[in-house]
Amino acid sequence: MFTIILLRPILAVLTWWVHRRHTHPYDDEHASIYGKKHSPGSQYSVMERKIFDVLEHHTIIEGGVVLDAGGGTGNFAERLLEEGAEKVYLYDHSAEMLSIATTRLAKFGNCAVVWQAGLEDEIRLEDGTVDCILCIQALHYIEDWNVTAAEFFRVLKDGGCVVVVTTHPAADSVFRGIGPYFEHEKRKAFLTSGGKLWPIMFWHRPLEAILVPFLSAGFVIADIREPYLDISQSHPWWDITGLLFRHFPPYLIFALRK
Ligand SMILES: C[S@@+](CC[C@H](N)C(=O)[O-])C[C@H]1O[C@@H](n2cnc3c(N)ncnc32)[C@H](O)[C@@H]1O
Prior knowledge:
This protein is an alpha/beta fold and about 260 residues long. The protein has a single domain, classed as Rossmann fold (3-Layer(aba) Sandwich). It is about 40% helix and about 25% strand. Helix 7 (about 145-155) packs across helix 9. The longest helix has 20 residues, at about 1-20. It is globular, with a radius of gyration of 18 Å. The termini are far apart. About 35% of the residues are buried.
């Protein structure tokens, strides 16, 4: 813990320095990185296992109709279809991500349906048609979650569930010592990928602001987890993210039921 306290000012300075040097939006540059097969020890694979644990606990994938909102390159959609989902809908606003998703999911024919849209938009599905919705590491890009939560509620069947993964609300304020916890504001953070640091823009919000849009839409909380990620082996020596993740949860996973 003492090491972490010492590291916080270093992290704050490092973040400031990286942000001055880089301006590329992470996701626009990284469709191909998301699209690749991730090694079993990588942060992505470790998280994927944790997310599937929650998903399998709250829904039956086999024969189900799933919506992957902000589904990127289709990693989760592919696995869901391999595990027997009857149909997977995927939308995302990035053309680069969707081009990889379309190629990857082509083998499933019309069981996979992909389109370009924003999380802020009305969803192109009828009321009560989906068993489960996944929204993984995408909501932090948008400011207002009210429309998204209401749309998720509308397209879900009664008893259906949503699994959301988002940045832990304490990740930057408390763990890295950057910015006040209670604010709902746009911030920058940096990620390591391909041996480089990349900045991302995201909306920080406290826990209450994460949950209230869903509760207001009519959902009840079915599950909430702060996954422990020991991924230090898969990070380069100079990247203290691995060390940090052994002490703090970088993500929050929660399930909501209609
Ligand atoms: C970190 S990636 C996660 C992708 C996918 N959910 C996964 O776990 O592999 C974030 C995704 O959110 C998408 N995204 C960002 N802002 C969005 C928005 N406003 N509407 C829809 N998708 C968005 C990005 O294009 C990107 O594919």
